[in-house]
Amino acid sequence: MKIIILGAGQVGTTLAENLVSEDNDITLVDNNETRLDNLQDKHDLRVVQGSASSPTVLREAGAQDADLMVAVTNSDEINMVACQVGAALFNTPTKIARIRNSDFWREKDRLFQPEVLPIDHIISPEALVTDEIIHLIDYPGALQIAHFADQQISVAVCKAYYGGPLVGYAISALREHMPHIDCRIVSILRQDKFIRPQASTIIEAGDEVTFICATIHIKAIMSELQRLERPYRRVMIMGGGNIALNVAQRLENQCSLKLIERNSERAEYLAEKLSKTMVFNGDASDQSLLFEEHIEEVDVFISLTSDDEANIMSALLAKRMGAAKALVLIQRMAYISLIQGGAIDIAISPQQATISELLSHIRKGDIVNVAQLRHGIAEALEVVLHGDPTTSDVIGRKVSELKLPNGAIIGAILRQNEVIIAKKDVVFEEHDHVVVYLSDKKAVTEIEKLFQPSAFFI
């Protein structure tokens, strides 16, 4: 596939790194020559310096025969114009744009039409991060939750602790503990090393366990790995940007919510927008303010400013003063592995959420949903099966008959609203939604080829 990526920021660069190893022809466009040179030295891709919305630059980048254009510059306006130029001058088949301004999102149904702004898919990092935070609030104790198959199947990551009934026992004991609930443990991270689980694998305290199950069973499975935490009732948010506002609006009817914003005018605006949230004009690094607002009673402290260092330091302070959990928004990927798992419980990356959504639209075949797990180390994807036994290498065959690449595990299937955990003797059928876990993303190309119907399928 020939793909043009507009913008070599963190999202554009990470997306290029993901796709260049998957047998794609990648061209990256950006104004920053030094950044482009560094990327070209590291990866097998083309680079073009210039404005992403310029017809001349897009022509030089090969827009006339590109299969896909992904506009992820820092400017919504440039992203929109670039897609419009791609449609009008080059008839680019698929155009994706990152749009962050909420004004555009409010009018998206009227704006993003073929005859107005011909963009096939729009992506909002703020909306994606908001959803991710809400998932984590809904499932206390989870490190990551990703929903698939119309939210009926989920991939969840959580840590095993002493007190969990399965800790110290083999995975096979899960069936004895919960005979009426089925799940598939697909990965264990133990002391920074991945273990492919077997029925005889012993779950140890401290393991990060990734499992796939019907969404309604997430909490039951988690209760086997740790003492199930009580629902979060007292939440404190630091920051008053759009993500913080969106999260507060989603939570204020179910939680006792406090929000701290440094800018007085923004704090007044938030107080008007939020009817059940206590809004404070102050600094979350102010120990006296945290003490006065009983930080020791807070179930989860959420740092959501645009400043990574401020988010980290305020979360560390909140934990030291007694907050039960700390969830932090981190822009720089390099910071995430350094902080998560210590005093800070969960780090959330807008870039990783955006990449997952972009890949859902880019993967070949009928791959309709992608989630990057453990900060890009692993991946889960949802494939819809088409064809018949003569045109598909999958349909009509058992799970055990598939030649899967190393690190690939078939987790679950949604068939006519029924969730089926993929045991060895399960036979694939047309229209199945199959959730596949990949511990090594290098296997993506092989999975795409395996699940694609032949050229004779119509």
UniProtKB/TrEMBL annotation:
PANTHER family: POTASSIUM CHANNEL PROTEIN 2-RELATED-RELATED (PTHR43833), TRK SYSTEM POTASSIUM UPTAKE PROTEIN TRKA (PTHR43833:SF5)
Superkingdom, taxonomy of origin: Bacteria
Protein name: Trk system potassium uptake protein TrkA
One Pfam family in the UniProt entry: TrkA_N
GO cellular component: plasma membrane
Signal sequence residues: none
UniProt KW Repeat keyword: yes
Domain RCK N-terminal residues, every copy: 1-123, 232-348
